[in-house]
Design goal:
By secondary structure, this protein is α/β, with parallel strands linked by helices. 30% of the residues lie in helices and 26% in strands. The structure holds S-adenosylmethionine. S-adenosylmethionine binds next to helix 2 and helix 3.
């Protein structure tokens, strides 16, 4: 469930910031994330690709040429409006848009080869439910790619944030395995500056078991 007014990084925040989201720092981050993902897992022109918590679709745009049909899932109406305008302007081809929050919604009856989620899971309270949703949405042997903050103690969002202060890599890996994922690998992904403070992001790659 999207946090309400008690979290200043809840749905209202993303609705309000959607129109100006595509700033140079976000575009650069999305490009770097896409590059790391493309260098880490196999991607093909037939790969059925889902980005969860897609924001304005920057990571999908950066990976578009590497994959087949893309689905962007995003619960903020403001963010979805930006994605819709990109689809309408043919900035995103063979793309469809879902209003989906796996904290409260059942996973649709669909299967993907790859699911990517970048800078989303630290906002997710019902993390195990969302990971179970990813597993249900993946083909056996499909890849989940999670990009998120290393544990940062809460300075990234500051006061009024009710999500995760980043993640410890080893504990996050255990959480993926406990959810049923296999072949969990976690590596360095990106470093960004916020208010003059450096923050590191990891890339966790995991697979849905080949036989379920
Ligand atoms: C920091 S932004 C990242 C957007 C995009 N992935 C990017 O890298 O530019 C976090 C995104 O997660 C979405 N989000 C927050 N809680 C969510 C949830 N429970 N399920 C799906 N998306 C969520 C927000 O609406 C927002 O678009």
């Amino acid at each position: 469930m999207f946090p309400g007014d008690e979290d200043r990084y809840g749905r209202a925040f993303f609705d309000a910031n959607a129109a100006t989201w595509d700033a140079p720092d976000k575009i650069e981050r999305a490009g770097a994330v896409a590059e790391r993902i493309a260098a880490t897992i196999p991607l093909h022109s037939t790969t059925r690709f889902l980005e969860y918590g897609a924001g304005t679709g920057l990571v999908t745009q950066a990976l578009r040429q590497h994959v087949g049909p893309v689905t962007l899932a995003e619960p903020s109406a403001g963010m979805r409006a930006v994605i819709e305008s990109k689809i309408d302007a043919a900035g995103l081809t063979d793309a469809r848009l879902w209003d989906l929050d796996l904290e409260e919604d059942e996973p649709p009856d669909e299967r993907f080869d790859v699911i990517v989620t970048a800078m989303v899971l630290h906002h997710v309270h019902a993390l195990d439910r969302v990971l179970a949703g990813f597993l249900a949405l993946l083909e056996p042997g499909g890849h989940l790619c999670v990009v998120d903050l290393d544990f940062e103690g809460g300075t990234f969002h500051g006061e009024g944030f009710t999500g995760h202060p980043g993640f410890h890599r080893d504990r996050f890996g255990d959480r993926l395995r406990a959810a049923g994922f296999t072949n969990v690998e976690i590596s360095d992904c990106y470093q960004m500056l916020r208010n003059g403070i450096p923050y590191t992001l990891f890339l966790a790659v995991a697979q849905s078991p080949a036989i379920r």
